[in-house]
Every structure is written in structure tokens, then in C-alpha cells.
Specification:
Strand order of the largest sheet: 1-2-3-4-5
CATH topology: Aminopeptidase
Oligomer: single chain
Helix content: 25-40%
Protein name: N-acetylglutamate synthase-like GNAT family acetyltransferase
Number of domains: 1
CATH class: Alpha Beta
Number of helices: 5
InterPro entries: Acetyltransferase_Butenolide, Acyl_CoA_acyltransferase, GNAT_dom
Largest sheet: 5 strands, mixed
Radius of gyration: 16 Å
Amino acid sequence: MTVLMNDEAFIKKGFQISTDKSLLNIDAIYNYLNDDSYWAQGISRERFEKSIANSMCFGVYQQNNQVGFARVVTDNATFAYLCDVFILPAFRKKGLSKWLVQTIVNHPELKGLRRWSLATADAQGLYSQFGFTQITRPERWMEIFTPYITPDN
């Protein structure tokens, strides 16, 4: 297992963070995103698996069991979009989300990026601890937003 951010307090409790995609519990991640998240409900399995294949993924594990996840869409040079961040409910309030975000923003392949981006409805307090702020010039940003209406779109 490739362990990142070797934090003794978490390691002693059996937690690890890894970018090794072969360790991901794809079913558990998909089930959480599709059934429990507010941002990815309705995503097709095919689209979800394509998102995993084309992203840098961070798994949080306790004793090799998936307890959290995040992915980063990036060019590894100038820009990164942080998304699909979650810790399973039974493992919240332990500092794992902070450890996960800290691990991501300090990852060697993501150092020196000009811009990070993310969207959240309820975790601004978490992300602000790591330098995330509201968009300073929203008039410069545009989007195309197409919710998952059918698996074909």
C-alpha cells in the first residue's frame, strides 16, 4: 500500500491514505456517491468508473477497508478540481477529512498549481482551513451544468 502523509496518530489507529487505484473499493464508493451524496446521485456506473479512471484518486482506509475518498481532476501543472470528497458517517468527527484534504493539497504531484477549485454546499469551514476561498472574480467564471438525467448524456 502506498501510504501518503505518514501521520503517526492516524497510523496507530490503523488509518492510511493511498493513491493506489487498485485498493479502491469501487462498489462502496459508487454506492455512497450514487445513494448518499447530494452532488452525484443518479450518476451511471459507467460514467462513475470513467471518472475514476481519469482522475487522481485518494482512498482513506482503516485496516484496508475503504472509509473515505476524494478525487482530483488535474493537469498536474496549473489546475486542479477537488471533488467527490467524503468520509463514511461512522468515521466522521475523527479529523479524517482534514487529514485527507491536507494530504491532497500537499501531494508532490500537485505542488505549485496556479489554481485549485471545488464546489461545496456545506463544507466551506473545512476547505477554508486549507486556503480555499469564495471565487474572487465570479464574473470571469462560466459553466455548463448538466445533471445526470440519463446515462447517455
